[in-house]
Specification:
Layout (H helix, E strand, L loop, with lengths): L1 H27 L1 E7 L3 E7 L9 E7 L6 H5 L16 H11 L4 E9 L4 H7 L3 H15 L6 E7 L2 H11 L7 E7 L7 H12 L5 E7 L5 E2 L2 E2 L7 H12 L6 E4 L3 E5 L5 E6 L10 H4 L2 H7 L24
Parallel strand pairs: 3-4, 3-5, 5-6, 6-7, 7-12
Antiparallel strand pairs: 1-2, 2-4, 8-9, 10-11, 11-12
Helix pairs in contact: 3-10, 5-6, 7-8
């Protein structure tokens, strides 16, 4: 009878352990939504097959102006669908990234606010940058047991979120391993940001990626799209120039782009020229821009994709 009780005890123990592991696996997998009282919604896309022994990269993607999370995630367009669903495809590009690098876990956190504009949201709240700092710190704490690398990325007005974080802190946290801007450097300011970026980049394990295009030549409705010094073309070059104060960057001037980069491309500014004065603002994301932002400077650079070329992730786009 004692043996029976003992066997039953160990059986129940194994069942509880398996159930706990399954619950944890289910908790990690799928999408979660967190709402913050300042009108922020965080949507967390975690891998279904989460391997606890693999490195974890948590990518915070600050949404562009005018986009919802679902639009940013993307889908195949059907009749009467909003065109915003077909210009980012961060969901499909994430799937491509996970399929290409199976040795890491990638979590993508979509950061949206109720104004659909991070610059407008930061103007509305006096403590905005502290809220941003708390969000980044909270994401690190959420995954702390997995020793995560935090990536701060964004497109368009999403860059304001990143600069809000940089500006609010004396130094960029060590767990922030990669910062990436896709046509999102409008808010770059030398006095506020240069030294903090330089200090952060002293660690060779840190990565800075910038993608932009020549928006200074674009005319929309008879007016310049941006001021001479207000667009990402000017601001990105200013940032690159500021970094050369302490970092040696090579300059490659090609027919279609300029490139400022260090030896391993862990620091890279890819600036698309624009002789036809077109608006390439969303094309920079669509043409494998998010993939490039994550893989540039790694062994996966240009593996099965080319930046500024046809979509490499088409088969992953949701119906």
């Amino acid at each position: 009878m004692q043996y029976l009780k003992l066997a039953l005890f160990f059986t129940l123990l194994l069942v509880k352990t398996a159930t706990a592991q399954l619950a944890l696996s289910q908790k990690i997998a799928g999408f979660k939504t967190l709402k913050i009282d300042t009108g922020i919604i965080l949507t967390i896309d975690e891998p279904v097959n989460f391997n606890y022994k693999r490195p974890l990269k948590v990518i915070l993607y600050a949404l562009p102006n005018g986009n919802t999370t679902m639009q940013t995630y993307g889908k195949k367009l059907s009749a009467n669908d909003d065109w915003h669903f077909d210009i980012q495809h961060i969901g499909a590009q994430t799937a491509f990234i996970r399929e290409t690098d199976k040795h890491s876990n990638y979590v993508v956190v979509y950061a949206e606010n109720d104004l659909k504009s991070w610059p407008a949201w930061r103007k509305k709240y006096k403590n905005a940058d502290q809220v941003i700092t708390n969000i980044v710190a909270s994401l690190y704490e959420k995954y702390k047991n997995f020793n995560p690398e935090i990536y701060l990325t964004g497109h368009s007005g999403g860059g304001s979120f990143i600069f809000g974080y940089i500006g609010a802190n004396n130094q960029i946290a060590d767990y922030v391993k990669r910062i990436g801007f896709i046509d999102a450097t409008y808010a770059y300011n030398t006095p506020q940001h240069k030294d903090k970026l330089l200090n952060w980049l002293e660690d060779k394990n840190k990565t800075l990626q910038v993608i932009a295009y020549n928006d200074s030549v674009v005319v929309l409705n008879g007016k310049p799209l941006v001021s001479p010094k207000g667009g990402t073309w000017y601001r990105s070059q200013l940032m690159a120039k500021d970094l050369t104060e302490k970092i040696n960057l090579s300059n490659l001037n090609l027919s279609d782009r300029m490139d400022f980069f260090n030896k391993n491309h862990t620091i890279d500014f890819v600036l698309i020229k624009n002789p036809e004065a077109k608006i390439y603002h969303t094309n920079l994301v669509e043409k494998n821009g998010f993939i490039s932002l994550i893989f540039n400077g790694t062994k996966f650079k240009s593996r099965n994709y080319t930046f500024w070329s046809d979509r490499a992730y088409s088969k992953y786009i949701s119906d």
